Structure formats: structure tokens, C-alpha cells
Amino acid sequence: MIKVRNLRYKYPNNREYTIKGIDFEIREGEIFGFLGPSAAGKSTTQKILIRLLKGYEGEIEYNGKSLLSYRDDFYEDIGVCFEMPISFSKLTAMENLEFFKKLYRRTVDVEPLLKRMGLWEDRDKKAGEYSKGMKIRLNFIRAMLNNPRVLFLDEPTNGLDPVNARIMKDMILEFKERGGTVFLTSHIMSDVDELCDRVAFIVDGLLREEDSPRNLKLKYGKRTVKVEYKENGNLVAREFGMAEIRTPAFFELLQSKEIETIHSGETTLEDIFIQVTGVALRG
Amino acid sequence: MDRLLVLVKGEFNRLNKYNLFTAHFVVLMVWVGLAWFFEAAELKAFVPFIFLMDATMMTILLVGATLFYEKQEHTINSIMVSPVTGDQYLLSKVVVNVLNSFVTVVFISAALYFMKGVVYNYFLLVPAVVVVAASHTIIGIWLSYHAKSFSSLLVNYIIYVFVFLLPTVLAMLGIIGEAAARFLIVLPPDTANILISAMVREVDPWRLVFGYAYLILLSVVLYRYIVRPWFDWYVMREVGV
Questions:
Q1: Of B75, B234, B237, which to mutate for an interface test with A (greatest number of A Cβ within 10 Å)?
Q2: Is B75 on the interface with A (CB under 8 A)?
Q3: Quick one: three-class SS letters along chain A?
Q4: Which of A76, A118, B116, B138 lies at 20 to 30 Å from B107 by C-alpha?
Q5: What's the complex ipTM?
Q6: Pairing outcome for strands A181-185 and A206-211
């Protein structure tokens, strides 16, 4: 659906390129996670893809045609959810949505969206009186207003309580089930792990890794099984390689000891993020 | 065209909700209050100044304030990822300010007529106000591009007033002599003053023709070569570059 080839971008006042030649593809109907530390180039890439930044080098194709060949009908197809709260503070939530809705040819009924996101009761409240979480939920509804084919989500669950984060993640997954495509940036690795079909890591303007979370875990994880058991009242841990788990020694241990836990040695996306980017996650 | 209409309606709605209409109305009431103390004959000399201030300075302030609010609340980001084009967005600002200045013409003219029975040439006033408000909206947008906050917008505004409007006001008060004042026609507010003053006094036809041509050409050149090309840069800066 979106193909990026040798993308390079330099901000007008910068000497160095922020994006230094990256290639990736976002397939139709998938959730593509774009991860990286601060100032690595992920927001810049997203802004290029949503055409807020112009003057890039390389090629970007959307639906088989150069992104540059699209006029503003491109925006009929996409929904963008920014990280920061965006709304006219002196207008009610409903007035905000009604204004943006009128800018599109194809729109959806906002009532079910507002109800699902728990904002229906507060629809006539001024957006400026909303809490941060409510503003973020309003952002998400704004992104869904035009029934988009592609959603660009920048840290969508950041600042949401677990219940509302769950609702939003469910809505993202339902969007995908209906055939929608999602480009997602987030530093909440559990969300990325749960939502994304594939992820790419960008570091210093270059892509370091691109694969499914599962494959990355296999690649970066240890192919081991760790068994913890009680022996003479003490907790003992022993690690077996994958090849060893078929051996009699492994079965004997399972049968003869009081097993407490068994863990495979697969790693987490957070550990992979740290390994690939060399930067620890914060927040 | 539909989207332009939506943007214009939305802008009027926000001018109301953000109390910018109220602020504008208060200024108009001050003008009407001042007019109360003038005799009808004196008013004829004073009233072009009201329309000049409204179509130039008030227009710059209003467009600056709306751009500032949109910048502060990041709503420009959301508008620019919708099918609205940069031209539609900028044109909506021009249309709204022109209509706003037209409202001023109707309000002040009605007030002066009912208070003092003052009438003047409305057919010369309306086109002058349209062209002056449109050109000063474009100037206001340009000044806003270079303002990082509302305070810096006010600084830009004050610089503009001193450099471009003060000589015109001094010429109106007779402090700058007629010979020197002739050259002030290249300053947009002075040109605006000539066009608007035609409502109450005779103005050389060549000055009217030059004035309209100059302001229209200035608007087109400013828009085509500065305001529109820099708009992408402005949006880029607002999305966090």
C-alpha cells in the first residue's frame, strides 16, 4: 500500500540529513510499527508520509502511484492522530468534530465513536475543559471521522488510563480487521507487541531492523528453556538449550523435581529496542 | 468552493467563540462614542480614519490573533491533514476579514446616519474597504509567520505601524508637508487612506487608479511569492520542526 524507497530528508536549516536513505513497505491491512529513540527520524518519516514535509529525496508510492502525484484527495483516504491534544478549546467536542467532518466527502456517524470512547455524555463540553486523556480520545475520533483507509497514529495510547487504552487498542484492531492499514509510532512496547504485524526500528535516520515482533523475538532471544525447581529446600535454576529439551536429562528433571516455573528464553520487544537502538526506554 | 465555505463559516464561529468579535465590537462602539462628540461636518473628515484603522490595523490584529490561536492549539496541523488546500486555508482568512470590514462599514455607517445624519459615497467606500482589508490580511499573515508568540506578533505589528502607518497619520494631521506626503503613496496604509478618503472628498482619478492597481498588485505579488510559498514552511514549523 505504501512503498518507501531510498527516502532521504534534510530540514531546510540543517546540514545533515535527518533521514539518510531508508526503504520499507507498509502492506495493505497490516499494522506497521515504526520505532526508535527520540530524534531518530520516526516523526519526520511520519510527517513526510502524511505530506506535511515536502522536498524529500527518494520515492514514496501510495497505492502504486507516487505520493507526489496525489492532490489533496490523498487526505480523503487517511486519518492522522497526533500525539499532542489538538482541538479548538472554546468549541465543544461536537462542534470540533462537526467542523472537521464537513471538510470530507466521506464521513461516519460520530455518535457510536463518541459513545465507544466514553465522550458522548461530555460531547457538549468545551474541548478546553477536557482532561488530557479525553482530548487524546477526541483526537482519535477526529482521525476516524472520514472512515480512512490508512491511519497514522503517533503514540495513540500515551496518557490514557488502562481501560481507555484497552478500548482504543480494540478499535485499532477492529479497524485492521475491516481491512484498514495502520502506521503506528509508540514507545509503549507492550502496545506495539500486541498490535503490530511488523515493526521497523529507525536509529539516527537509518533502518536497523524490520520484521514481525515474533521473528525479532526469535532472532534476539535466547533459544533456551529455563526451569526453576526446589532442591533440598533451595530454589535452583537451570537452563537448557532447545536441542537439550528432547534429552532424557530434561525429562528426568521435570519428573523428579518439584518444578516452580518454566520459561522460554524469548526476549521482549523492549529488550530488542534497547539492543537495536542502544537506547533505554523511558516513561 | 464547498470547503472554502466551511472554512469561512468555521472561522466566523471561532471569532465569536474566542470573543474576537466582542473585542472588535467594543472597538467599534468606541469609534461610535467618539463620533458622538463631533459635528456632522467634522465627522466627514474623521470617518475615513475609522475605516482606515479598521481595514488595516484591526484586520492585521484579527488575522494575527486567529493564526496565533490555531498555532497555540495545534489545530492548523489537523486542518492541514484534511483535504483543505493551503490556498483554501489562506483565502478563507482573506474572505473572513473582508466580510468583517464590510460589517464595520454597515455598522458605523448606520450609526453615523442615525446619530448625525451623516452620509457619504458608499459606492466608493465599499470597494476600497474590500481591497484594503484583503491586502492587509495578506500583510497580517506575513507578519504572523515571523512571530513566535502573540507578544512578538504585537511587536511586528507596532513596527509596521511605525514604519508604514505613522507617516500617513502625520500627513493626515498636516505635520508632513504636502510635497513630501505625495511620495507616501507607496506605503500601503497611505494608498489605503487615499482610496478610503474618496468617500468624502474628491481624489484625483489617477491616484484612485494607481491606488487600486498598486494594492491589488501588491496583494498578488505578496501572496504568490511570499505568503503562499512560506505557508508550507509555516505549517512545517508548527508541526514541530
A1: B75
A2: yes
A3: CEEEEEEEECCCCCCCCCEEEEEEEECCCCEEEEECCCCCCHHHHHHHHCCCCCCCEEEEEECCEEHHHCCCCHHHHEEEECCCCCCCCCCEHHHHHHHHHCCCCCCCCHHHHHHHCCCCCCCCCEHHHCCHHHHHHHHHHHHHCCCCCEEEEECCCCCCCHHHHHHHHHHHHHHHHCCCEEEEECCCHHHHHHHCCEEEEEECCEEEEEECHHHHHHHHCCCEEEEEEEECCEEEEEEEEHHHHHCHHHHHHHHHCEEEEEEECCCCHHHHHHHHHCCCCCC
A4: B138
A5: 0.87
A6: unpaired
Q: Residue ranges of the domains in chain B?
A: 2-238
| Residue contacts between A and B (CB atoms, under 8 Å) | 73
Give pLDDT tens digits along chain A (283 positions).
899 999 999 988 888 999 999 999 999 999 999 999 888 898 899 999 999 888 899 999 999 999 999 987 899 999 999 988 899 999 999 999 999 999 999 999 999 999 999 999 999 999 999 999 999 999 999 999 999 999 999 999 988 999 999 999 999 999 999 999 999 998 888 899 999 999 999 999 999 999 999 999 888 878 888 999 988 888 999 988 888 888 888 888 888 888 999 988 778 888 888 888 877 655 4
B81 to chain A, any CB pair closer than 8 A? The answer is: yes
Q: How far is CA A93 from CA B3, B10, B62, in A?
A: 20, 14, 24
Please state the three-class secondary structure of A24-71 as a single string. Answer: EEECCCCEEEEECCCCCCHHHHHHHHCCCCCCCEEEEEECCEEHHHCC
Q: For chain A, what's the residue count?
A: 283
| Buried/exposed B86-100: b ≥16 CB within 10 Å, e otherwise | bebbbbbbbbbbbeb
DSSP state of B225: I
Burial bucket for residue B107 (CB in 10 Å: 0-12, 13-18, 19+): middle
Using CA coordinates, name the residue in chain A closest to B79. A100
Contact between B80 and A52 using a beta-carbon 8 Å cutoff: yes
